[in-house]
Amino acid sequence: MIKYPLLAVSALLCLASCDSGANSNAGEDSLRFDPQAFRIDSLTMPDGDVVRFKSYEGIYYVKNIEDSTYQQLNIYVPLDTKHRADKDIPVLMRNNVGGYMASPAGTPSAVDATGRALAEGYVVCIPGARGNGATVVKDGKTIYTGTAPNGLLDLKAATRYLHYNDDLIPGNSERIFTDGTSAGGAMSALQGTTGNAHEYETYLKAMGAADASDAVYASICYCPITDLNHADMEYEWLYRCTDNGVRHLDESQIAVSNELAALAPAYINSLGLKDEDGKAITADNYMDYLKKFIMESAHVALENGCEIPDTIGIIRYAKPRPTFAQRLGSGPVNGGAPISGRPEQKMEYTDFVIDVDWQKYLTYVASVTPLKTPPAFDAYGVLGDAATPENKVFGDTEGNPSNFTEYSLRKRTGDPNATLSDALQQRIYMMNPMNFIREDNKGIAAHWYIRHGAKDRDTSFLVPVNLATLLRNKGYDVDFALPWNRPHSGDYNLDDLFAWIEQAMK
Ligand code: DHB
């Protein structure tokens, strides 16, 4: 929060003389923000409006920098903050993590949430983070620096930097909204669930992160590739019904798929989820619960004039749209009729989605983008498969990948008693947001915006549904949807997102 109005004046005066990115008052405490080290930049938005902002770039957010390429953040402050009081200025913290790869600190874009946030008068922070592919050379040896949970630790250290410098950075660090897509959505979910969790403390201290909170106010998660150590079983449990249609597996793959799917019910039941009426959600009724989200998605799409083919398992009942007189309460309301075969009457009818034929719908999803083969995530060494991004992120500092489920470890080694080391199990624990919701971590974000496209097959629908449901069950404010016709993607429908942010700020 800016507590010193004079700073704004001095910043303006410095426009003509400041070097870009110069850290003129680093002084003794390298983690203190220098409000004068900016340059003025601008973005032309899709509507032609030009947004001008101060760019503070290349700021190291830890004292003990291991990887100078990635452990940096950039901060952008709009010149026009829309007359908001400083406490009412949200901070959008958007990570650029994808594929669990390392990501350098980013710059704002007119076509994603960062540019939009600046146009709305928000402060934007785009931190870099270590991840797959990041290496440094120490004593002539290549060290892989991006292994889990280092990327998350970096994002948490960046959050600490924002809190630590709340008096110097415009915007309210108590109103940080994290945002990410896919592996970045997982990171956003982790930032939202692990605020101030003790599990990370010694690591953050060792990194020289600021002595401040790493909790955030709200978490925006697009298609989070998360709950990694249960994602394989959830994938097979959902998609095995498509095996004879679009996914052509050989016999040993079908065996693996069946074994993994058989592990899912115990996990689903262990979550103790409840629906909105308080009824227990178990493996037995889970597909009915899931159905509601797909039906809602299709319903909204139909309401918006989207055509949904009759062949993809979205079962509809068409009810005559009430006449004006009927809406006023007079005149009879006719019964409905199935819409199939009566396309010429479509315009007169409101569609109601009444069911989902899962076999047809999931086959449709799998026909849009071929499914992953089993195991979808912990594939390393199972049936000769190569390491996935997830195997790499759980790998070691020498660049060797690692299994992160007992199932795949045993398959790869052929040892039916093989176990994951305690140290690895701890790393896996720290990378799963579900653990911190289940353990009732105190620093969980109050507000959640979770989206996973209705035709996104990168992970099972169970992953975002479980995350959203568990958060709801624990009393958090969760806006969740599986938007119709969306593949694996993020930062879409920004009008909806920013309306939600404004609501969450109240
Ligand atoms: C991403 C996508 C995946 O399917 C996956 O397994 C991991 C990461 C991504 O887009 O970030």
Throw out a few tags for this protein.
two-stranded antiparallel sheet, nine-stranded mixed β-sheet, binds 3,4-dihydroxybenzoic acid, 16 helices, 506 residues, alpha/beta, disordered N terminus
Structure in words:
The protein is an alpha/beta fold and 506 residues long. The chain is 33% helix and 15% strand. It has helices at 5-13, 113-119, 150-164, 183-193, 201-207, 228-239, 251-270, 286-303, 324-327, 358-368, 389-393, 406-413, 422-430, 433-438, 462-473, 494-505, and strands at residues 39-44, 50-60, 72-78, 91-94, 123-127, 135-138, 141-144, 176-181, 218-222, 314-320, 349-356, 447-451, 477-481. Strands 1-2-3-5-4-8-9-12-13 form a 9-stranded mixed sheet, sandwiched between helices. Strands 6-7 form a two-stranded antiparallel sheet. Strands 10-11 form a two-stranded antiparallel ribbon. Helix 6 (228-239) packs across helix 7. The longest helix is centred in the middle third of the chain and has 20 residues, at 251-270. It is globular and about 65 Å long. The model is unreliable at 1-26 and 330-348 (pLDDT under 50). The site of 3,4-dihydroxybenzoic acid has 8 residues, from loops.
- Computed structural class: alpha/beta
**Major beta sheet, strand line-up:** 1-2-3-5-4-8-9-12-13
User: What share of the residues does DSSP label as strand, in percent?
Assistant: 15-25%
- Assign a percent range to the helix content: 25-40%
User: Count of helices?
Assistant: 16
Termini Cα gap = 18 Å
Order of helices and strands: HEEEEHEEEHEHHEHHHEHEHHHHHEHEH
Rg of Cα set: 25 Å
Number of beta strands: 13
Mean pLDDT: 91
